[in-house]
Amino acid sequence: MAEFTGNNLTCIRGERVVFAKLTFAIGEGEVLYLRGPNGSGKSTLLRLMAGLLRPVGGQILWNGESTLENAKTYRDLLHYIGHQDAIKTVLTVEENLTFWAEMSGVDPAKRSVGEALENFSLSHLASLPARFLSAGQRKRLNLARICASPAPLWLLDEPANSLDKASVGVLRSAITAHQEKGGLVAVATHEELSPESNVLNISEFTNNMKAPKENVA
Amino acid sequence: MAEFTGNNLTCIRGERVVFAKLTFAIGEGEVLYLRGPNGSGKSTLLRLMAGLLRPVGGQILWNGESTLENAKTYRDLLHYIGHQDAIKTVLTVEENLTFWAEMSGVDPAKRSVGEALENFSLSHLASLPARFLSAGQRKRLNLARICASPAPLWLLDEPANSLDKASVGVLRSAITAHQEKGGLVAVATHEELSPESNVLNISEFTNNMKAPKENVA
Amino acid sequence: MNVFWKVFTSLIQREIRLAIRHGADSMMVVMFFVLVVVLFPLGVGPEPGILTRISAGVIWVAALLSAMLSMDRLFQTDFEDGSLDLLILTPQPLELLVLAKTIAHWLTTGLPLIIISPLLALLLNMETSGYGVLLAALALGTPTLSLIGTIGAALILGARRSGFLLSLLILPLFIPTLIFGVSAVDAALIDLPSKPQLLVLGGLLLASFALCPWASAAALRQAAE
Amino acid sequence: MNVFWKVFTSLIQREIRLAIRHGADSMMVVMFFVLVVVLFPLGVGPEPGILTRISAGVIWVAALLSAMLSMDRLFQTDFEDGSLDLLILTPQPLELLVLAKTIAHWLTTGLPLIIISPLLALLLNMETSGYGVLLAALALGTPTLSLIGTIGAALILGARRSGFLLSLLILPLFIPTLIFGVSAVDAALIDLPSKPQLLVLGGLLLASFALCPWASAAALRQAAE
Amino acid sequence: MFNYFANPTRFLRLTSKLQPIAMVVTLITMGAGLYYSLFQSPPDYQQSETVRMMYVHVPAAWMAMFCYVALAASSAVVLIWRHMVADIVAKSTAPIGACFTFLALATGSLWGKPMWGTWWVWDARLTSVLILFFLYLGYMVLYNAFDEPTRGARAAAILAIVGVINVPIIKFSVDWWNTLHQPASVVKMDGPAIHSSMLTPLLLMAVGYTAFYFWVLFIRSRAELSAYKVRALRIRQAEG
Ligand code: HEM
Ligand SMILES: Nc1ncnc2c1ncn2[C@@H]1O[C@H](COP(=O)(O)OP(=O)(O)OP(=O)(O)O)[C@@H](O)[C@H]1O
Ligand SMILES: Nc1ncnc2c1ncn2[C@@H]1O[C@H](COP(=O)(O)OP(=O)(O)OP(=O)(O)O)[C@@H](O)[C@H]1O
Ligand SMILES: [Mg+2]
Ligand SMILES: [Mg+2]
Prior knowledge:
The complex is a heteropentamer, with 2 copies of chain A, 2 copies of chain C and 1 copy of chain E. By secondary structure, chain A is an alpha/beta fold. Chain A has 2 domains: 1-77 and 152-217, 3-Layer(aba) Sandwich (Rossmann fold); 86-151, no CATH class. Chain A has 7 helices and 9 strands, in the order E-E-E-H-E-E-H-E-H-H-H-E-H-E-E-H. Chain A has a 5-stranded parallel β-sheet with strand order 6-7-8-3-9, sandwiched between helices. In chain A, strands 2-1-4-5 form a 4-stranded antiparallel β-sheet, covered by helices on one side. The longest helix of chain A has 16 residues, at 165-180. Mean pLDDT of chain A is 87; it is low at 209-217. Chain C is mostly helical. Chain C has one domain (2-224). Helices cover 84% and strands 0% of the residues of chain C. Chain C is elongated and about 55 Å long. Chain E has one domain (20-181, 198-239). Chain E is built from 8 helices and no strands. The radius of gyration of chain E is 20 Å and the shape is globular. Chain E starts with a helix and ends with a helix. Classes of the chains: A alpha/beta, C mainly alpha, E mainly alpha.
């Protein structure tokens, strides 16, 4: 039922075309893997999907409706995890998580802060100021955010960075559980997270990659 | 000839014992892999090795001499890459790298800033302000630092984070080349970087892992 | 509506908590305010005549400087650690969130400043007839400063020379508040009615209340691009 | 020695480059200094008599506040982005690096302040007999402020309520400089010799030059743990 | 209409035709206006010869406000439709407006010394014009403060739009507060209250100033546009 698509997207940053005429589609319960070398535009595409950037051409649709025009309802539907972790080091782990759960505006009954902490094995750290967290613990706290309040679309930028094997497993099963509930996921990653079906290779759409090839041919 | 060892190291952070009685040894041309789940103390151990932290017990020796007592000469010998990347976003890529090469105090003839940029395929970005770098490009710039001026001991904290496959390859060959020159490397990572010989599993020395088990037994 | 309110208060709560735990901004502002006023007698010499004469001006200038000083980090940390992206992506209108942040900013910087000002007025030998008007003028003026400041704070995100820019952008906009604030107190000190000036201050407050959150929200969206 | 010198200058260069590119700190300080001084006539009213009377005090208080204002970010950004770790790990003695940073800080904040001060003195109607001494006093006093400030800046790294702490820590240490600075100028204005005060300022400078880098370096090592 | 002019080539073609016209109008009206104001109009019975300052001061003040409105309007177009031409018009208008504002401030100050006995008072009109000047400055500095040009354009556009409330304040400040400054006597609901011997040169100068604005605007925006094209070309080259 839910469908998330992008048509002919072109994105310019700093007067440089990052990618052009990019098209993608994610169906219900599907995961789209974004692949490409460093600097190819994966993070850029995710920010575009989230609505933080505007494409210069093309559009992004949720169930056939433009996400830019229905920004307010659309923002209800998504969770975004970027490179930066949005963690305030003076607040405790729990305070950090609770704050974002509250900001999501989701019905308190549907939130599950405790469960999310439990899931990512952060419960024993709940009352620690976030400053003391190790790199992987920070990342887990950031990931716990997407489980603490429900939203159908997850946009994840290299979520497995600095995670240990066990946590990668937790992340993987969180994604699978989300899929089973009919959720949609777009994830940029350099690693194998699961047997991949739906892969978007961004370098196919980047100008600077294409142009030399054509020149050579 | 060169040898880097730690004896009976105990480290306390925030009134908690992170690890105790930890012992390691790295010989010439060897790589030591630090392993352990998130929060087990890999980064802490690396900071200890670098001399940024002081152990509450035990000592760290370079060729049998205490590194704390000979801190000044010892600091000449090492490169440390932590979780934070020490990149100034308003300076260009090249300015960032050149600065750290100059600070290393190494003879200018022995520095190789251009080559390091080339190696990590950053040459085309050299004059760009570092703010525009993608996550992987930032990491590569940080890594280029260790190649820009020579030092026998490398301490690397999750150097492969957010790198694409090609860059991981570059990193791997940089490490191999360093080994062949007789360099020593200690690296904390969750991934397989090369067929591992010398692995230190930190969780064997952490209290909180051990204690519950003993309680149960 | 209920959801909005909840989100609104939880943002204010977080900001206040951050200010208290971290304190870099809020306490610094109050300290700064006190210091400007305390250092003056030290620098100028403690002649009561002169101090009395310049008391209203010193307090207002100090308030202005403190407000400006606290502005540049208002959105900066959120911008740097990625919180701003997430705030923009919450379903709530960004204008509301900006307003919440502004209120929190005022509660942690403007309010303490007002509370402490009678003490400082005493220190500067201000005549007691000015106290009431000083409080009223500060109560009307400092929220305006916070509101106007948010625009500047949002516009400079990611800019070069942001500190310089911030002062250039918001200081001119602060001037009316300063002028009417001082003249309200000065009028009271010479037993003239200060109601007209207070009314203008109120008008400025209303106008900036209506305008600033929108402008700042627009600027923040630009900054996240 | 040669290596030291190279490292020393390249650190100074970087700091200056950062200050120019980013400008948040350095330009802000100068702007701030100017603003304090410009806002005063606005707040106090432009009566030349009063302005003349308080000119030296206003300029020194402004200089003090600007110096304090620029201090809290001196090591903070390096601390947050990991540069501090690397600086500590360079083979050069940390004291030297601290000194280089202090010099860069003074070059980008203290020096512009000195250069612009005659203009501000003019604006405040200071009598011309005070100009020379004002410059001399600022030239001796502002490096002291920078040096003392580094201790505070290093101590507050990672501390809670850092802003508050900073003012509490370094302000008392600033006060002697303020008092002798103002009285040097005031003496010149009433045609008394101001040499004794200038000598004291010189003494303060020497003492802080000998002491501060060590204290700050120790504090920095502590902060990195 | 916006779409029509948004096409850079069309804009270039149009301005290349209008530019000489603006130049001719400027030279003629300014020349005539200066002649009338300096030699033909009578000295004022109160202000004597200093009244001639009016012919420089008043149109400059008008243009300062006019340019700001133009700046804000094109900035709105930049934000809403993201048209490049609007951006170029806004960017080119700002320095011209700043110059007019500076002229109004400087001539006003010069005029104030003989008339009010002081260069400057902090009354509502003077203060609001000073703020206008700072808004122009802020716009220009903000525009150039970013590494990404588009970011600067949009941030500055927001500032321009916010600042537009200052324009009615300037206009009506003399009515709302009693100040030293002259209330409006030309642009009023019930027709101008000024003698025609003074009105004619004033209006001539006003037309001259306006034409001058457009003249410089065309020159500047054409230069901006070519610079933009060169940059785009270079980027395309760099990308192979
Ligand atoms: C720096 C000081 C001054 C500033 C910033 C200033 C600003 C302005 C502005 C913005 C206007 C246009 C108002 C409108 O269109 O309604 C104006 C008009 C005018 N100003 Fe000034 N002014 C200054 C000083 C003076 C002085 C000293 C005089 C003479 C006593 C003067 C006489 C006038 C007159 C006669 C008008 C035309 C009013 C009308 O007919 O609409 N101004 N001024
Ligand atoms: N300053 C501190 N005060 C108190 N505890 C700390 C401090 N810094 C780290 N810790 C704790 O010490 C432990 C070790 O942290 P460390 O960063 O070394 O882990 P790590 O092995 O590098 O983990 P990761 O794989 O997530 O990077 C963690 O449990 C962390 O919470
Ligand atoms: N603000 C900006 N201005 C100009 N160029 C930018 C800007 N931000 C990013 N870029 C450039 O756009 C390209 C895409 O960056 P992006 O962060 O999307 O890459 P990525 O695919 O996520 O890479 P990584 O795997 O390293 O995270 C990069 O080459 C980067 O240098
Ligand atoms: Mg990325
Ligand atoms: Mg770690």
